Amino acid sequence: MAEAHQAVAFQFTVTPDGIDLRLSHEALKQICLSGLHSWKKKFIRFKCVIVVVGVMSSTYLKVDPSLGMIARINRTLDTTNCMTSQTKKVVSGVLFSTGLWVALIVTMRYSLKVLLSYHGWMFAEHGKMSRATKIWMSMVKIFSGRKPMLYSFQTSLPRLPVPAVEDTVSRYLESVRPLMKDGDFQRMTALAQDFAVNLGPKLQWYLKLKSWWATNYVSDWWEEYIYLRGRGPLMVNSNYYAMVYITPTHIQAARAGNTIHAILLYRRKLDREEIKPIRLLGSTVPLCSAQWERLFNTARIPGEETGDTDPRTQEGWGKLCHISVTERLSTQPGSVTQSLARLVSHSEPLPAHGAALVPWAKCRQDYFGRGKNKQSLDAVEKAAFFVTLDDTEQGYRQEDPEASLDGYAKSLLHGKCFDRWFDKSITFIVFKNGKMGINAEHSWADAPIVGHLWEYVMATDCFQLGYTEDGHCKGDPNPSIPCPTRLQWDIPECQEVIETSLNSANLLANDVDIYSFPFDAFGKGMIKKCRTSPDAFIQLALQLAHYKDMGKFCLTYEASMTRLFREGRTETVRSCTTESCNFVLAMVDPSQTVEHRLRLFKVASEKHQHLYRLAMTGAGIDRHLFCLYVVSRYLAMDSPFLKEVLSEPWRLSTSQTPQQQVELFDLERNPEYVSSGGGFGPVADDGYGVSYIIVGENFIHFHVSSKLSSPETDSHRFGRHLKQAMADIIALFRLTVNSKK
C-alpha cells in the first residue's frame, strides 16, 4: 500500500564523529534502543490468586500439594529468626504457589512459542492435512487455553527470523529477471554477488544481534524511517480510506450518533481486551495483536525530522465538540444524535483559508504552542478519534454509478483538503445524506486493524442499534446533554502559510484519478472451482491487465502480513514473476492453445502462492534488504547494490482488504450488506495503486488510483482492462459467469 510509496528512494543521514569504531557504536546504539523499546512492552500479569488460595487451603487441611517443597522453604526461613511460626507457614505457602504459577506460565508460553514457530502447515497442499499437522494443531489448542483475550498470545509469538543473505540475494535476482535486459541483469548479478560475499555478512551480524535483543528486528525501523521520517504530505501519499455501500438512514446526525456509539462500544471491548484475537487455520494459529494498542487517542505529532505517534493522555473524541467516553456510553445513541444535530444547525461555514491547518511542524511550534490554540489542538490530538460532518452528499447513484463511486472514494481520501485531520489515527466521516467512511493514518497500524473496527461498526450500527421507521436513532435523547462547544482558534499570523499549504494540497488532490467499481460477474466461489487461490487469480489478472494497459511488465508490490510473529507488520510479495510473465505472454498470443495457457496459469498461480507463504513466514526479501540498508547507513558504508534496490519504483502497488468477521454478516439474508473495502492513492507518478476486497462468494470490489498528470496512466482504462482480464482467465476454465449486474 502506501508504504511502497515511502520505500522508494528511501535514505537517511547519520553523521557520527570519529572513526569506524564510533560508526559501529552508532549502529549498536540504535539496536540497543530498539531492544529497550521492546522490553518496555514486556511484562507478566500474574493472576495467581487462585493458585495461592488453593495451596494455602490445602495446607490448612493437612494436605501437602508441594511434595515437601513448602516444608523445605519453611526450614530455610527458620534461619532468619524474624518471623513467627504462623507467618513462616503463610510465607512458605505463598512463595511456593507463586513459584508454581510462574513455572506453569513460563512452561505454557515457551511450549506454545515452540509450537507456533512451526509453519510447515502453510506449505501443505490445500485440502490435505497430515496426521502430524493434526496432532500439532491439537497441542496448540491445548496450550492456547479456552477463552484467550486479545493480548493473550503476545508473549508466546515467535520472533521474526532473519533470512540468510544468500537466500535474500538469490530471490531478489529471481524477482527482477523478467524485468531486466540481459546486460542490466548481468550487471545487477555482479553487484548482488559482491554484496553477498563482502558487505552483506557484516551488516547481517548487526541484524542478527538486533533480532536476539529486540522483539522484532524490522518493525520499529520500518515505522521510523518509512513513515515518521517521510517528509511528503500524508494526504493521498500515505493515508488510506474505507467506505461502505449500505445507508440505513439518510439523516446525517442519526447515522453519526449510532456509529459513534458503536465505535465507543468497540473501544470499551478493546480496553477490556474482550476482542477475540485473530486466528488462522480453523481458529488455531494466532496473529499478533500489538497494532490494536494505538487505535484510539493517537495522532502524529510533527517534527522537523520525525514525529511521535502515541500521545495518549485523554479520553474523548473531537471535531468542534469534545465528549468524554464515559459520559457518552452511559446514554443512548439518540443523545449523541441530539448533540450532533445542534452542532450542524448552529455551525457556521468556515472559510477555506481558515480551516487548512497544514504544514505543520514549524507552524505548529510557532503558532499552536500556547493559549487557546494549544487548548484546541490538544482537544483534537488527544481525542479518541476525529469526526467530520461533511456537508456534501456522496455514495452510489444508479443514474451515474461510475462518477458517484469515484467521487465518494476521492472525498474519503482527501475531502476538501482542510476538513479531515490526517494526523489522527482515524477520521470518521459522515456525509450529509447519511453515507459514511473512514480516513486512516498509516504509521500506527495496517489496514486489517481498521477493517476489523469497521466491520464491527457496520454490524452494530445496522443490526444491533438500528433506526426507527423515520430514520432516527432508537431510544429517547437526554435533554440535559450540554450543547457542543466550538473550539477556538487564533490564526491571523499564519494566514500566508495556510494559503500556501492549501494550494499545494489542492494540486495534489486534483491530480488523483480514482476508479472505484464493483465486480459481480463472479467471485471467489467460481474462482475456487478453478482449484486456485482467489488472491493468486486476481494477481495474475492484474498482471494481464497491466500488460494490456502498458504493453510491458513492471515491478509489482503486493502487501502481505507478518503477524504470525510478534509485532509483525507487512512484507512484500513481488507478484511479477517469470512464471506470471510467461502466462501473460501466452494470453496475448493468439496462436497459443487453451491447454497451454491453463498449464502456465497453474504454474504461475502456484508460484505466487509459494511467494506469499514465504513472505508470511518471515522469508520475504524486501524487509530484510531494507534493514540491511539501515545498518549500512549507520555504519556509513556505501552499498551500490542496496542503493539501487531501494530506489526501484513500484509502478503497480496492490493490496487485498481481508474480511475478518464474516459471522457478523449473513449475505444470503442481507445481500446489500456487502463491504466495498477501501483504497489508497497512487504510489508512483507513472503507476497504479490497486486495492480489492473479496466479499462472499460472488462479489469483488476494486479501487484503482493513478495520477491525472501522467500521460501513461488512466485509472478507468486500467479498470476496463482488469475486468476483461478477469473474464479472459475464467473463460479458460469454461465456466459460466453471472449475467446479473
How would you sum up this structure in a few lines?
The protein is α+β, with helices and mostly antiparallel strands and 741 residues long. It has 25 helices and 15 strands. A hairpin with a 3-residue loop joins strand 4 and strand 5 (322-323).
Descriptive notes:
There is one protein chain. The protein has 741 residues and is an alpha+beta fold. It folds into 3 domains: 49-156, no CATH class; 225-510, Chloramphenicol Acetyltransferase, CATH 3.30.559; 513-617 and 649-732, Chloramphenicol acetyltransferase-like domain (Chloramphenicol Acetyltransferase, 2-Layer Sandwich), CATH 3.30.559. Helices cover 47% and strands 10% of the residues. It contains 25 helices and 15 strands. The protein has helices spanning 2-7, 20-40, 49-60, 69-78, 85-116, 131-144, 165-176, 182-197, 199-213, 219-228, 252-271, 325-329, 333-346, 361-367, 371-381, 401-414, 447-465, 495-510, 524-528, 534-550, 578-587, 594-616, 622-634, 640-647, 715-732, and strands at residues 240-244, 279-280, 285-286, 317-318, 322-323, 386-389, 426-430, 436-440, 512-519, 556-561, 570-574, 652-657, 675-680, 688-695, 699-707. A 6-stranded mixed beta sheet has the order 9-15-14-12-10-11, with helices on both faces. Strands 6-7-8-1-13 form a 5-stranded mixed beta sheet, with helices on both faces. The protein has a two-stranded antiparallel sheet with strand order 2-3. β6, α16 and β7 (426-430) form a beta-alpha-beta unit. α2 (20-40) runs parallel beside α9 and α20 packs across α22. It is globular. The two termini are 29 Å apart. The model is unreliable at 14-22, 41-46, 309-330 and 350-358 (pLDDT under 50).
